[in-house]
């Protein structure tokens, strides 16, 4: 492991392609992934004890990528969490701190490609923290990878293709779905300016249409411009209210309909996982269609921090195809930077990928434009709605922080502890930012995002101890700052 | 609830070996490859944890290890994410919802 030059963090579509491209160019690569199996959420595989003969093109594509990855000799570190990133012992090197079976506590490398992916975003409504309310990703994984039903009678609320896919899978699995609320209004008219982006995207259009057919076949209404506005229940959700939204995304109260359900599936798109970027104090910019704050990058997908690349949904949500292209660009660019291939050899391949990337960007812009949740949805929460689930901070407490003069999400965190619990602000970070911006009339760039400190996931204290012992025992390490 | 009908979107499959776990003192069947989170839901457990500050219940939310809402106790070790942990034979799982069951 001493001669690893490049670390790729995250073995989803972007990370697999980045590691493969760099390794094919002769770079010694470690690919770090927190799951037992590579593939990320997109190529998520069923657990080994399950037997499944999957002959779908999607599965075949995933298998092909993984076989190619294996053949390149990339060091795959499974079940391994990259919990921190620091300046390395030598100038121009980086040190990743790891926690996993049979991995060194520290990995010093000359370049890092962050391919950390994204996670589901919710927008809070009264009752959203009741058991039985879950994200679209959670419901989808439960059915696809575990073949378990999340409940008997469900309603969906959210926006975009992921929630449509979750809805179709719920219906197909036998869950009674009372409605799919899509917050975006009038898709067809608003889609006209984007018609060009659909060229060459028939495969995805077909997939979307087949999901709509599944819903129609089961008589499930797909309500455009609607959302679930509140939930009630004791130990578990038992009733949901949905309403039509006005142009700003606020509910029209007289349109409200209550339904008895045991499950509410929420999917307002994805939030990029930027924790490691933020640890490096890499500059982020707010990009609503790409899911929130994302790292700035040049055309080689390198961030302003030299030697640190960011690709895939973790650098701005754009889907798996785009993630794979970005991975290949960064993998080859890192190989150039590390002196494994000359610039003149790499440039042709990279510019071909960049052209493909522009095509994908058109499609992703269309999805971003059509399916960004309207700002008015952030007004659904009432004063006693819990916003930070870990620390149980309510909207009323956040308003109190604002009344004390909080101007940024960090101010709110300092005053009322939002984002200081186990999830480290992943769930509430963008929600607090939107609410603060809305209540104070400031922009997202004004209110910013939570600072991050290592470890980026909770760890047993013993792990930090091991890390410091390892650092003390070696002359090239540093104790954790 | 385990999916029993033939799906038109998903390929046919077979679960792993049948095993036995203990949930809040009660024996339950499970299958290798299943997650603690889905086994609990299949057994009708919706409350996995309660918040220290308010006592409010929590359960499966993100299902991918991000939110830490599904923390349970396994073999006496607390704060284990149910959605990131596979069941094993004779696993002893305790939730905070015991009183409600």
Short description:
Chain A contains 14 helices and 23 strands.
Describe this structure in words.
The complex is a heterodimer of chains A (481) and B (101). Chain A is an alpha/beta fold and 481 residues long. Chain A has helices at 13-24, 57-71, 136-146, 161-173, 187-191, 202-217, 275-279, 320-337, 343-370, 395-403, 409-416, 429-440, 444-447, 461-473; strands spanning 6-9, 29-32, 51-52, 75-77, 81-87, 94-99, 106-109, 111-114, 118-120, 133-135, 153-158, 176-182, 222-224, 226-233, 237-244, 257-260, 263-267, 270-272, 284-287, 292-295, 308-310, 386-388, 393-394. Chain A has 3 domains: 6-119 and 271-341, FAD/NAD(P)-binding domain (3-Layer(bba) Sandwich); 122-268, FAD/NAD(P)-binding domain (3-Layer(bba) Sandwich); 381-447, Orthogonal Bundle (Arc Repressor Mutant, subunit A). Chain A has a 5-stranded parallel β-sheet with strand order 4-2-1-8-21, with helices on one face. In chain A, β5 and β6 form a beta hairpin. The longest helix of chain A has 28 residues, at 343-370. The model of chain A is unreliable at 474-481 (pLDDT under 50). Chain B has one domain (18-96): Ubiquitin-like (UB roll). Chain B is mainly beta and 101 residues long. Helix content of chain B is 7%, strand content 30%. In chain B, 40% of the residues are buried. Chains A and B meet through β3, β10, α3 and α4 of A and β1, α1 and β5 of B. β3 (51-52) of chain A pairs antiparallel with β1 of chain B.
Task: Classify the beta-strand content of chain A into a percent band.
Answer: 15-25%
The low-confidence parts of chain B are none
> What does the average pLDDT of chain B come to?
92
Q: Quick check: average pLDDT of chain A?
A: 93
Oligomer: heterodimer
Which CATH architecture of the largest domain in chain A would you pick?
Answer: 3-Layer(bba) Sandwich
Q: Over all CA atoms, what is the radius of gyration of chain A? A: 23 Å
* Separate helix tally of chain A: 14
Give the strand line-up of the largest sheet of chain B: 3-2-8-6-7
CATH topology of chain B: Ubiquitin-like (UB roll)
Structural class of chain A, by secondary structure, is: alpha/beta
Tell me the greatest interface: A-B, 55 and 50 residues
Instruction: State the secondary-structure class of chain B.
Output: mainly beta
CATH superfamily of the largest domain in chain A: FAD/NAD(P)-binding domain
| Rg of chain B, nearest Å | 14 Å
- Distinct helical segment count of chain B: 1
Number of domains of chain A: 3
